């Protein structure tokens, strides 16, 4: 994990260096932007405490029975949270692969993928059970776009 953090810090330093080399007006805008959330941070895990030797334990995936209890909007919101998590994990895996290092938690990616498949399954079941054919077709188009 220290390699991931080092690469992430190097990327953030490069972004900050690019913004500081701009004109004074741009530098003032960049200084206010530095206090805001950097979008590149979404592709890296947050820094952990000094107990880096402890293995990280991630939660379990979502079960289809749990997703069935959710409203129509909740699984869609969860889909995008999982998509963001998957992108972060895939970025980390690719960076480590480029440095010939091993990805520490490959099972975490499979948990995210399974949860995403279960969300699609639950939403598809709901679309099939919809009595209105127009609404059902609209729901299926939306699900296929995920």
Explain what you see.
This protein is mostly helical and 146 residues long. The protein has 6 helices and no strands. α4 packs antiparallel against α5 (106-129) and α5 (106-129) packs antiparallel against α6 (133-145). The two termini are 31 Å apart.
H-E order: HHHHHH
- Please compute the radius of gyration using only Cα atoms: 20 Å
Shape: elongated
Query: Helicity, in percent?
Result: 55-70%
Q: Quick check: average pLDDT?
A: 76
Beta-strand portion reads: under 5%
Most strands sheet: none
Count the DSSP helices: 6
Poorly predicted ranges (pLDDT <50, ≥5 residues)?
14-28
Structural class assignment: mainly alpha
Total number of β-strand segments? 0
Amino-to-carboxy terminus distance: 31 Å
What distinguishing features does this structure have?
single chain; about 150 residues; mainly alpha; 6 helices; about 70% helix
Q: What is this structure's SSE topology?
A:
Layout: H1 2-20, H2 24-35, H3 64-68, H4 73-98, H5 106-129, H6 133-145
Compact description:
The chain is an all-alpha fold. The chain contains 6 helices and no strands. The chain has helices spanning 2-20, 24-35, 64-68, 73-98, 106-129, 133-145.
